[in-house]
Amino acid sequence: YTGFVTRKVKPAAGKKLRRELAIAAQEKLIVASAGGGRSGYTLLSNVIEAVHLLANSQQIRLEMFTGPFRDDGEFKKLSANSTKRIRIRRFTKRFLDYLSAADVSVSLAGYNTCMNLLVTRVPALVYPYLRQREQRLRVEKIKKFLPVKILQDIDLNPISLGDHIRQMLGASRPSNGVALNLDGAENSARYLIEWMG
Question: 117: which of 73, 94, 127, 128 is 20 to 30 A away, CA to CA?
Answer without folding.
Answer: 73
